[in-house]
Amino acid sequence: MNKIILRSIINNFVVLIIGSSVLMHAQDRDTSSLRSSSIHEVLLSINQTMRDNLYDASIVPSTEYQTIEKGLLELSLSSSDMESFVKGFNDLWARGPFSHVRLVRARMSAEMTAHYLDTMSVPGNGASLRWMDDVAVLNVSTMMGRNTIDQITEAFKAVTDRKARALIIDLRKNSGGAFAVRPLVGHLLQKDLEAGVFLSRRWTEQHTAPPDDAAVRSLRAWDGWSIRAFWNDVHANGVLRIVFPPLKPHFDGPVYVLTSRKTASAAELAADALLASGRAVVIGERTSGQMLSQKMYDIPHGLQLSLPVADYYAKHSGRIEGRGITPSVIVPSDSAMAKTLELIKKRSEK
Question: What is the architecture, at CATH level 2, of domain 116-349?
């Protein structure tokens, strides 16, 4: 009897183990299926959002863009989880046909992100001033942040009060941002500077080239200070005219701008504007050529997609995206400061 009972217990245990194993495999299949479904849903949302909002719809049929979409489809099928898909997405777009595309885990909604960008202050100093004898060196590491705007304004007060012999603006580590470009350029001008235009989908759907000078002059210059207002206006109008007005205090001494391959976006806009004004000598490397305006969109499963909604055409340099700004004096970026000091010394000896 004991043997019969023992055999029954063993048989039941084996059945339990087998059943549990089958259940676990079924759950794994369900989890894998759910994960694949989620990634597929994200991919569909990304593709539709890009096609609906990209600054120029004519890019979508291009070989380069279609190659990216094919790569993303393959990535969605091979990704083991959402994190690997997000990483793979950003790796693919780092080699994409245009800049300012990124997928991240959302910390807040796209609308809240836009509000935050309008009101944020960057940690530490977005702009800092130091002196090398009577030469002022203004390091601007970002164009973001209300405090960066204030720091640039305060720096120009110090530069003009001390009557600096020259001003060096270091943009070598500046990857862009927003409105801090205005005081950086404005305090060096004596009259309005026609900088360029931003063009959105509304323009590119109806035109194959940027507006000519006469058409641009017929537009009111955009004078907003809100990223949300910029997105709304460029979407509604199709074209925004960018003009830099002069600001006080005005510095009228020699100006040198340092650039590198990392100088990007709004920092490139600044370098171009200062070249166009004739107020600066740009020294260093060709800039990165990443001059588009991006906007954030909410994507399912807690993700947020940044994509470019406007292209920029400078009056001086033309389209900057994919080309960059060529310096007046081309040297490796780590030699740019020494070269600049050499030029300042030669100028003083004349």
Answer: Alpha-Beta Complex (3.90)
